[in-house]
Amino acid sequence: MRVLLVEDDLDMAESLKASLAADSHEVDHAGDGELGESMALNGAYDVIVLDRMLPKKQGVSIVRDLRGKGVSTPVLILSALHDEDHRIEGLNAGANDYLGKPFSTRELLARVRSLWHGRDLGPATRLQVGDLEMDLLARTVKRDGKKLDLQPREFRLLEYLMRHAGQTVTRKMLLENVWDYHFDPQTNVIDVHISRLRSKIDRDFAQTLLHTVRGSGYRLEG
């Protein structure tokens, strides 16, 4: 796996590079935000590990701009700012995961591997529920032939729901498999993303596909 590490603390960067390399990853390093964004735009990386507080350009702004330019590479933000508001800001900007400092190297490596494995599409390259279609290679979603514009987290959420079409998906399942949280952060991050996703896949269509199962979770069915 090819990893881009954007970290201005050189001691930490060297330590993380060594740990990632020992875990069989190829690592490129950028020491400031502007260089990191340029490398992310021009390099083929599997995962980006991005410090939040960087010289020249902040990590959250980098993620937001990368997503706006169509870069869907999974991003793990590292930050000493890891209260609820800061985590939500990072995730809403388009980050796939958020890890507070200090952290254990084992946890960071596990999260990097999880982000990569989450992109493993398996043999299927297209998913369909009713007239809702997802192309996993082109990273596009259409309903009744109309292309829908989804943010990376919305795409990942919808992919999980489509893979479990007809089943009730619990909040715990979403937290663990879409956000990689193995605890309940006690935030409304799921509700916010479900609401945004519902507005895009259901609002302009006669049939509702995404249903709330009161007290249990959500179900996608056509």
TrEMBL record:
InterPro entries: CheY-like_superfamily, OmpR/PhoB-type_DNA-bd, Sig_transdc_resp-reg_receiver, WalR-like, WH-like_DNA-bd_sf
Domain OmpR/PhoB-type, chain residue ranges per copy: 124-222
GO cellular component, one term: protein-DNA complex
GO biological processes: regulation of DNA-templated transcription
DNA-binding region: 124-222
Entry annotated with the keyword Transport: no
Modified residues annotated as 4-aspartylphosphate in this record: 51
Domain Response regulatory: 2-116
An MF annotation (GO) of this entry: transcription cis-regulatory region binding
SUPFAM superfamilies (UniProt xref): CheY-like
Keyword annotations of the record: DNA-binding, Phosphoprotein, Transcription, Transcription regulation, Two-component regulatory system
PANTHER family per the UniProt record, alphabetical: REGULATOR OF RPOS, TWO-COMPONENT RESPONSE REGULATOR
Record protein name field: Transcriptional regulatory protein CusR
Organism, scientific name: Terricaulis silvestris
Gene name of the record: cusR
